[in-house]
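lol forgot to send this yesterday, sorry. struct tokens for the thing we talked abt
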């Protein structure tokens, strides 16, 4: 990172530094509402100089010191919490309103990402990994293996927010690029931002945007980048209700953007390699599906499939992808459903938590090789298990290994009501409503439920996941029977979340996992639980723990997916 990039803009730097000082001062006292990254140790502390140096690319060492001048001695995570949350917004690319007066001119996404990673390392931080997928799918049925090689193109629908379409698209590239549409090709200079509306596409027409020597990216109305750069090309298609953007990218380059977005780059090499194999296996299975025929795409870029290009690729991640080039996991000559998630509570789950048929290679495994799998479906057994922590568990290093969530059922009533309506519309079989006399009621009764009062676990899986949760309201009861729905609903009432090491932070909008028990207290309700994610397949923090213990990639994969084989789909590097 070069400090002298900004020094020629003296008056802009002064204004910018003042803005940053104000920002830092404000965010130190601000509550974001997002769950902070896992693993921040309350005892971890770094010097102010370390923190300032991590942000020198913005020439804001003085601003950092000014914001933290009231701190005595070293800077702890508690001192710096809200600013790190602001960095999380930067990671998502939403920082267009942070700097005025031109100070962010010349600041690249890679520099922002580098700074965020350096802060993570300073605080010995576990960057939150994303669980995949949100929507349960049946394990892959026997069918022809797709013809795939390193040049196979993956078509990724780039969601605009959560939507597939947007009213307008602004795009550019970091090197000279071309736009091809209606049989003609136009050349554009690097960083020249073009609006799709200028192409006058009719419904059903497409334009291709690609850069031979660079990467294409999306921008905002001001011409500022709103995404990282993308390899391959954009296919921008006009529909009646807006534009869809599909990134067509070779499979191995796609994996650079996936593995980095799904697992922290500082994880052990063998864990990154295992993640690369899982990610490659997963995308091959998606080539066997028909996910987005209306948009000409195989997957989208969200955690519904695999998070893609949310974080700039790191050399360690790219090396892991290259080292496993062409390798996937198979069972009976078919690619497996290589589900993975962030952190287990010391034991993984089978597919019963999604009410799917048992799958031979997706069976519960204990969090360390020396312990036996235990039946945790009994309430008393599960409670005793969660209250105990085993430092030999591979997942123990994650702060989500154990957690405590404080709920306030008297808040967010409108939000809870809206969420229930959405759930019952999507999956009515997962939301059972009864009045106070025990009579079944339809969706119209949701408005009469009123205030939530208590929670009761009705059914658990073998590994302890809550499969059925009864929520008692003043006007009736609701029984939820979907682990994802249960986590979403409880997330609406979650006030704070305390991690394994005792540190805490404002809670996010979703419970970390469905592995919890309920404890009523005077102030409301407390949930004691463990793990982050759905719990099926490979635990990412568990894989990292295994790698740290000297296990190789193939040992990690065979531990979490019993009886599978490594298959070379096409020649490696």
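and heres what i got for the seq, position by position
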């Amino acid at each position: 990172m070069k400090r002298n990039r900004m020094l020629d803009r003296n008056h802009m730097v002064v204004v910018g530094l003042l803005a940053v000082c104000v920002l830092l001062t404000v965010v130190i006292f601000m509550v974001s509402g997002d769950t902070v990254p896992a693993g921040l140790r309350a005892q971890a502390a770094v010097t102010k100089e370390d923190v300032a140096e991590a942000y020198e690319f913005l020439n804001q060492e003085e601003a950092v010191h000014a914001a933290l001048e009231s701190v005595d001695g070293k800077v702890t995570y508690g001192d710096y919490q809200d600013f790190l949350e602001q960095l999380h917004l930067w990671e998502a690319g939403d920082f267009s309103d942070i700097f005025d007066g031109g100070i962010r001119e010349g600041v690249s996404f890679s520099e922002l990402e580098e700074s965020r990673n350096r802060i993570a390392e300073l605080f010995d931080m576990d960057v939150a990994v994303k669980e995949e997928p949100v929507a349960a799918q049946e394990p892959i049925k026997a069918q022809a293996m797709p013809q795939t090689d390193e040049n196979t193109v993956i078509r990724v629908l780039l969601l605009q927010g959560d939507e597939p379409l947007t009213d307008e698209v602004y795009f550019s590239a970091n090197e000279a690029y071309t736009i091809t549409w209606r049989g003609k090709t136009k050349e554009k200079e690097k960083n020249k931002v073009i609006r799709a509306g200028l192409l006058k596409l009719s419904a059903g027409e497409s334009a291709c945007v690609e850069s031979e020597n660079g990467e294409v990216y999306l921008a905002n109305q001001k011409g500022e980048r709103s995404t990282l750069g993308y390899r391959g090309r954009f296919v921008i298609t006009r529909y009646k209700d807006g534009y869809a953007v599909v990134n067509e990218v070779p499979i191995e380059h796609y994996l650079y953007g996936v593995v980095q977005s799904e697992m922290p780059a500082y994880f052990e090499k063998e864990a990154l390699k295992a993640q690369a194999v899982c990610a490659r296996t997963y995308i091959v299975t998606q080539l066997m599906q028909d996910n987005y025929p209306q948009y000409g795409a195989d997957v989208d870029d969200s955690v519904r499939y695999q998070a893609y290009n949310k974080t700039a690729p790191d050399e360690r991640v790219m090396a892991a992808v290259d080292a496993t080039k062409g390798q996937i996991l198979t069972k009976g000559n078919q690619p497996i459903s290589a589900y993975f998630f962030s952190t287990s509570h010391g034991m993984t789950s089978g597919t019963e938590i999604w009410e799917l048929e048992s799958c031979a290679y997706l069976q519960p495994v204990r969090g360390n090789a020396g312990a036996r799998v235990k039946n945790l479906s009994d309430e008393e057994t599960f409670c005793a298990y969660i209250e105990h922590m085993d430092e030999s568990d591979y997942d123990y290093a994650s702060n989500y290994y154990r957690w405590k969530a404080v709920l306030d059922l008297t808040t967010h009533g409108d939000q809870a009501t809206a969420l229930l309506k959405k759930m019952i519309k999507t999956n009515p079989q997962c939301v059972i409503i009864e009045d106070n006399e025990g009579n079944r009621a339809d969706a119209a009764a949701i408005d009469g439920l009123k205030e939530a009062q208590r929670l009761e676990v009705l059914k658990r899986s073998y590994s302890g996941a809550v499969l059925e949760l009864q929520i008692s309201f003043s006007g009736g009861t609701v029984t939820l029977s979907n682990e994802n729905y249960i986590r979403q609903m409880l997330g609406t009432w979650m006030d704070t979340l305390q991690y394994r090491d005792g540190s805490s932070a404002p809670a996010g909008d979703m419970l970390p996992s469905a592995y919890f028990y309920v404890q009523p207290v005077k102030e409301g309700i407390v949930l004691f639980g463990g793990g982050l994610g759905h719990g099926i397949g490979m635990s990412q923090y568990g894989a990292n723990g295994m790698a740290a213990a000297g296990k190789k990639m193939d040992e990690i994969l065979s531990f979490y997916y019993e009886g599978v084989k490594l298959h070379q789909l096409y020649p490696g590097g």
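Confidence is low (pLDDT under 50) at residues 1-43, 57-61, 84-109, 125-136. anyway ping me if u want another try
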